[in-house]
């Protein structure tokens, strides 16, 4: 074994025994790493200052409340898909009329925007040529636009109007795509242009757009048309610049290109508001010395702010930061060499990209400032009285495109500037590891995107050639690819679960309790009384909510055709109410409950097992004594007569004849007693009523049975829930048997209803009606001296 020098010293570093030289290397590496970390975090602090300046400058991006402005002028700018469909010349005339009525005449306009100038309507035409159809056979034709074939001769209005439309130059370049990104410019065909001239009119100078239609202003000669208008909100100082370019292909196909933006013009941000003050003759008191000093300082600062725009100072500060970053990256590139600099670290490429975008952003800010100045001159010309048909739209178009370019660069620059923060955090071990994992995932994702795009490109080419470019969706390979991606997007949305209520609504199949084998016996005679009472309860609730009778249902105006006495309801509605009441009684029996009465009550009333003939004779006597009446007792006294005055019409409706010479039909004693109870238990006069009939002279005042003094035992609350749920199932099954289906909104014509869902998905408000009906039904039975007991209970 080798001997070890006893003089050699050992050092302990973090629990590890090391020699002096190794320890020195570890210490140097640790110190170097700490220095680099400190340097990175210092750079991070400086970069945070840069981000603060950048976003402070972007905060004045010349747009304010654009989505508010969209709500007001959305129909004019056509920014929403499907808002403006222009496929024929008639559609162009209709859209022109819409612009004129809204912008010029302000029809149905409640917003406080004002138009700046008029509404320019311009078209570009081509000359008529002679084209060969066949040998010796020629026909007039109208070619694609080119400066050589552009028509410039004056147009004379047809149909004897003698209106003259002159061709003017200097109206600004007319192009369907006024703004293209760098990618579009690099990879796609150049933008088509229709020159700087054309035939222009101001729609606000016309009495109506029909004049242009009569003059055949648009014809086969037309190859392009354009609308231009400018609106201003005088309070928010937001300008809405709208421009619609319509191109007409020689085949007759029409394309519509809508361009609009809501911008703030530099130099026109502050509204000059004038207020009228009353002079009360009082001499203002002289302010104190310190107040005058503060006012003087404030005035001085205001003058400084106006003399030196803060936005300009922020822009200068960003330029200084930009120059500093450029010097730093150039120094590092010269030190490392261009090849090593670009190939050593991905962050270096990211730095260069950031600098390029930042340079473009700063330059476009200057461009927008200059466009605002030019637009101010355009406004001055309009103020002098020159018409929009005479002026060039170049200034407004430059402002529009400048804002769009500035917005795009601002969004891209802000995203890249924030992502650059990762560079300064990579010295953190955890974040650096996370970044490496994200880098590997990004590499896999890029490979997938390449394969995915190649597959879609192949299918796009196949689709274009398979359909012969005959359909608009397959007119170009680019269009096919865009359509395929939209299909994928819609497919993704189909994979997402619908909201539970909507999903259950489409799959809902109501299954009420099967009560077909339940025999009610004498209890069945309660169905009609309960049905009438339920109708009065429903009508009373509707009236309390502000509803009134109407021949057609109207949820907005709160009109309902069923707010009439029960006897005037349709056969279907009466059958529905009767079926619901019978099902409620059957459900109580099916749920293992019994409906009974005490013996002394039964003998006293003579209701359950008295002979039918006895009941019939008694009711016949009552009917003969009272005489015929059309007043419906069960409807709750809907007429002016007292609800306790006449029973004959009720018995006649239920089967007992009251006319002389007509044999009396038997009325079961339970039904007689139920009607007598209802007659004696109606609510007092109610302030809620509605009128119906011819001239609305008939009065319907629903008066259901008064059960306010009846207390529902707690043991029956569970039965209330069961009855409410089953009542909903019965209602849903009845509706579906009639052809109704689920729909997010009620539509009587299409038979759609939002409540055709399982009971558990109903809201509390939607459940309230069924629960109240169940409670009132049980209270009514208890008030009629019935006892409801659970047969499964020992008590």
UniProtKB/TrEMBL annotation:
Annotated Polycystin cation channel PKD1/PKD2 domain residues: 308-479
Main subcellular location of this protein, as a coarse class: membrane
Gene3D superfamilies: 1.10.490.160
Membrane topology: Multi-pass membrane protein
Family: Belongs to the polycystin family.
This protein's name: Serine carboxypeptidase 26
Keywords: Carboxypeptidase, Hydrolase, Membrane, Protease, Transmembrane, Transmembrane helix
Subcellular location: Membrane
Keyword Transmembrane: yes
Ryanodine receptor Ryr domain span: 508-597, 700-788
Transmembrane segments annotated in the record for this chain: 44-63, 312-328, 349-370
MF GO annotations: carboxypeptidase activity
GO-annotated cellular components: membrane
InterPro entries: PKD1_2_channel (IPR013122), Polycystin (IPR051223), Polycystin_dom (IPR046791), Ryanodine_rcpt (IPR003032)
Domain Polycystin, first and last residues per copy: 109-255
């Amino acid at each position: 074994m080798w001997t070890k020098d006893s003089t050699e010293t050992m050092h302990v570093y973090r629990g590890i025994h090391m020699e002096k030289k190794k320890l020195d290397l570890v210490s140097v590496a640790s110190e170097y790493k700490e220095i680099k970390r400190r340097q990175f975090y210092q750079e991070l602090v400086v970069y945070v200052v840069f981000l603060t300046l950048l976003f402070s400058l972007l905060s004045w991006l010349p747009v304010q409340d654009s989505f508010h402005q969209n709500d007001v002028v959305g129909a004019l700018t056509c920014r929403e898909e499907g808002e403006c469909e222009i496929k024929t010349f008639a559609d162009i005339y209709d859209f022109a009329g819409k612009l004129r009525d809204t912008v010029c005449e302000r029809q149905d306009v409640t917003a406080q925007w004002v138009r700046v100038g008029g509404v320019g309507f311009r078209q570009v035409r081509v000359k008529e040529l002679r084209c060969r159809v066949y040998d010796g056979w020629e026909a007039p034709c109208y070619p694609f636009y080119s400066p050589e074939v552009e028509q410039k001769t004056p147009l004379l209005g047809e149909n004897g109007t003698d209106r003259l439309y002159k061709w003017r130059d200097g109206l600004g370049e007319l192009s369907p795509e006024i703004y293209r990104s760098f990618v579009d410019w690099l990879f796609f065909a150049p933008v088509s242009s229709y020159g700087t001239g054309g035939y222009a009119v101001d729609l606000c100078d016309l009495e109506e757009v029909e004049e242009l239609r009569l003059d055949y202003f648009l014809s086969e000669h037309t190859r392009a048309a354009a609308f231009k208008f400018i609106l201003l909100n005088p309070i928010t100082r937001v300008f809405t610049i709208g421009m619609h370019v319509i191109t007409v292909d020689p085949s007759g196909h029409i394309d519509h290109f809508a361009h609009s933006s809501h911008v703030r013009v530099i130099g026109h941000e502050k509204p000059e508001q004038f207020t009228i003050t009353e002079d009360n003759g009082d001499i203002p008191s002289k302010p104190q010395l310190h107040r005058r000093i503060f006012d003087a300082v404030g005035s001085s600062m205001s003058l400084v702010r106006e003399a030196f725009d803060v936005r300009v100072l922020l822009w200068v500060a960003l330029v200084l930061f930009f120059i500093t970053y450029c010097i730093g990256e150039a120094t590092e590139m010269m030190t490392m060499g261009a090849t090593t600099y670009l190939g050593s670290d991905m962050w270096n490429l990211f730095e260069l990209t950031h600098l390029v975008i930042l340079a473009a952003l700063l330059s476009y800010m200057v461009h927008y400032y200059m466009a605002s100045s030019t637009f101010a001159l355009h406004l001055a010309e309009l103020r002098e009285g020159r018409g929009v048909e005479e002026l060039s739209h170049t200034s407004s178009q430059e402002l529009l495109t400048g804002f769009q370019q500035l917005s795009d660069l601002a969004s891209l620059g802000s995203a890249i500037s924030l992502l650059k923060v990762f560079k300064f955090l990579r010295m953190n071990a955890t974040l650096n590891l996370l970044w490496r994992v994200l880098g590997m995932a990004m590499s896999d994702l890029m490979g997938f995107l390449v394969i995915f795009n190649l597959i879609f490109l192949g299918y796009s080419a196949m689709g274009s050639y398979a359909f012969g470019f005959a359909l608009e969706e397959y007119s170009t390979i680019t269009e096919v690819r865009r359509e395929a991606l939209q299909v994928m997007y819609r497919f993704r949305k189909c994979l997402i679960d619908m909201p539970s209520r909507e999903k259950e609504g489409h799959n809902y199949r109501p299954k009420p309790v099967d009560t077909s084998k339940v025999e009610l016996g004498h209890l069945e005679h309660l169905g009609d009384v309960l049905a009438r009472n339920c109708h009065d309860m429903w009508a009373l609730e509707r009236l309390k909510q502000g509803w009134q009778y109407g021949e057609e249902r109207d949820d907005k105006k709160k009109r309902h055709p069923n707010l009439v006495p029960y006897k005037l309801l349709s056969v279907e509605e009466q059958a529905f109410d009767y079926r619901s009441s019978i099902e409620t009684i059957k459900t109580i029996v099916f749920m293992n409950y019994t409906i009974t009465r005490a013996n002394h009550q039964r003998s006293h009333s003579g209701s359950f097992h008295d002979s039918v003939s006895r009941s019939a004779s008694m009711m016949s006597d009552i009917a003969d004594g009272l005489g015929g009446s059309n007043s419906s007792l069960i409807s709750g006294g809907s007429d002016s007569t007292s609800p306790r005055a006449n029973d004959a019409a009720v018995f006649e409706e239920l089967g007992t004849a009251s006319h002389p010479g007509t044999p009396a039909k038997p009325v079961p004693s339970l039904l007689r007693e139920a009607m007598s109870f209802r007659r004696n238990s109606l609510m007092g006069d109610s302030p809620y009523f509605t009128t119906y009939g011819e001239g609305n002279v008939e009065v319907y005042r629903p008066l259901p049975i008064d059960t306010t003094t009846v207390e529902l035992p707690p043991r029956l609350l569970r039965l209330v829930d069961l009855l409410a749920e089953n009542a909903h199932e019965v209602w849903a099954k009845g509706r579906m048997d009639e052809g109704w289906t689920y729909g997010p909104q009620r539509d009587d014509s299409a038979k759609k209803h939002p409540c055709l869902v399982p009971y558990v998905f109903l809201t509390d408000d939607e459940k309230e009606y069924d629960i109240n009906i169940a409670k009132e039904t049980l209270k009514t039975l208890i008030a009629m001296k019935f006892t409801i007991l659970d047969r499964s209970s020992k008590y």
